[in-house]
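Final report, section 2: Outcomes. Of the targets proposed, Transposase is the one most frequently requested by collaborating groups, and we therefore present its record in full.
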Amino acid sequence: MFDNDRFVWNQMLAMMNERYQNNKDLPFLGKFKLNYLLKPLKKEYPFLKNSDSSSLQVVNEFLTQSWKNFFQDKSGQIGKPRFHSRKYLKRSYTGKSTIRIAGKRYLKIPKLGCVKTSKTGVLQDVKIKRYTVLLEPTGKYYLSLQVEISEPEKYSLTGKQVGIDVGVADLAILSNGLKYSSFDSSYFEKKARIWQKKYSRRRHLAKLLVLQDKNKRVLCPRSLESFTNWQKAQKSKARCQAKIANQPRDYLHKLTTHLVKQYAVIAIEDLKTKNLQKNHHLAKSIANASWRMFRQMLEYKCEWYGKKLVAVDPKNTSRICSKCGYNSGAKPLEIREWTCSKCQTKHDRDINAAVNILHKAKLNGQGLTMVTS
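The predicted structure is given below as tokens.
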């Protein structure tokens, strides 16, 4: 079914390209006109009948939208729609047909039948708009549902306010002294590098054996897909890479939900992470810390649950004493604790910055960015 969607995309794209080359004055074909061509295409290629008809219509919709994005783009950054390769490892298809609950723990999907799931209780009072079946490089299948639900319940306003300073060793440092460490994914990064080497070596040896059979003109030459050793290494590498991506995201979801539940007003720095990553010594650590994702999760969760998020100017938050307001100048990153030369107060660098962020949010009334419900 994944290949059927790819096949329809390539056929429709080739037809539209050829049509434009033959006569440039012909009108643009929209998604509804492309859908009329699906019936003769199914007669010519009967294997397309195995797919959900709505998934092929979604392909036409995506293709039409790609052309519209290309024509409407004035910056020149969006290119023309391209043909899809069968070598792409992450495959999926999207459909609009009705999915219904077939039992206590079963969903009935068009053309696939009943699928066991534990989420049927959540889907009782929602309207399923679309579904997507996804095949990951790890070999696992996922079902993603786009549903229409009522507005989520607002969390109770606690009246608490907090300033948050983000860092590398500790992801979030709160103005009340709490610190939440960054997620350490070094173990799976090491395993992913090992499996990457094994995969490259095994695939290279398989290619050599395929060429050897071709040069010797063997009666039944072996193909690259007939060697399973490199394919096993590819799946093991993909599993490690999936853990590297999924575990930090899960950690961020749990942390941001906890913060939104606890505090009514959250103040953060308006950091430009893209500029900070120009420092090549800290670029990887900043990317692994996922500061941007942390802020995005806080933004939409505060909007969902009726909390307030304030982003303030990060200028001098690490230099100013949070007690007396004296600016003692720049400090290297090695200095984690310092004493104010004016009031002699001893500060933790990160906690002091978080307190200053909260003070700025209170003084300004609102920061550079205000996200409210």
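Residues 229-262 form the longest helix (34 residues).
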